[in-house]
Fold this sequence. Notes:
The protein has four helices and two strands, in the order ααααββ.
Amino acid sequence: MKSAPSQGYLWGTESVGASARTSDPVTSHEAASRHNESGATESNKARILRFVKANPGLTSAEIAKRMGMDRVEVARRLPNLVDDGEVEQRAKRACTVGRGDAVTWFAKDAAKSD
């Protein structure tokens, strides 16, 4: 059996960040590590941040669809941007892409209106 990657990932009940969940198999942690090392994580965070600044108030699914990005990638990078102090979640509303209500996303410097 393979051991956990040595890039700061913790197993069990410990947090591993937004790149992989503690319950994910080792291959998911390896893929997350490759994604981070390739620069794709930072590049996608920058792209998503620019988009959210220009298009405030969208759900993660709406952001992904409009950007032509994978929904899961957007959903994983938004919490990274929260941790960086760049974006925040606000009120839920009906998502025009997915089913049900979803939180909306705004850049931290956007004026609050809700």
